[in-house]
Amino acid sequence: MTTPKEVKLFGAAVSGFCTMVHHALRLKGVAYDYVEVDLKNKTEEFLKTNPVHKKVPVLVVDGYPIPESLIILLYVDETWKEQPLMPQDPYLRYKIRFWADFIYQKMMPVSYAIIQSEGEVQKKAIEEFLCHFKTLEDGIKKDIHLQGPFVHGEKPGILDVILGTCGAGLKHFEQILPGVKLLDKELVPQLCSTMDAYAELDIVKDTAEMLSQYLHVGQQDN
């Protein structure tokens, strides 16, 4: 397979799903162009890249669009072989995909329910989220058990990209929802430690700095 020549990411600075793709590309050392999408006024150029879901992120590689963040993460790892984000062992690869899907299908929807609700409904959503969080921690310990500061061991991989980005979102939830505690270091010490280590990576800080200019523009426009 020839190395792609033109890589473009359509995204939005407010989207954690897009941030994951930024991180994966930067961990791989892939040079790419970035297009900030106005979610309230999507251009025809963008809509042509994802006519089905019409959502960010979309990665366009040599003219071919790849939508949906988890699919993009797997595509990036398979396309650029340097700095692998997935292990070589087929069983470990399967387990990582299983727990990545668990985060997307179980944890993310409940996290949205937390921020969109209040009172007893919110309380039940928090309890459900923390239950899933504990299941994830126990499952990773049992199924993956790699030594190092990250889920994938000494270097971050796809699960770290997903969890690390989600960790930043959970911290934001805690800031805007008084009394809500989601990053419970007693309940999920390993995952909290992993997310803290991920937050210290240069690619995470550099991405945040780059995206901040778009956030400031959006605030000024509002």
UniProtKB/TrEMBL annotation:
Residues 89-222 form the GST C-terminal domain. The keyword Nuclease does not apply. Keywords: Cytoplasm, Transferase. It is found in: Cytoplasm, Cytosol. Residues 5-84 form the GST N-terminal domain. Coiled coil: none annotated. This is Glutathione S-transferase. It comes from Rhynchospora pubera.
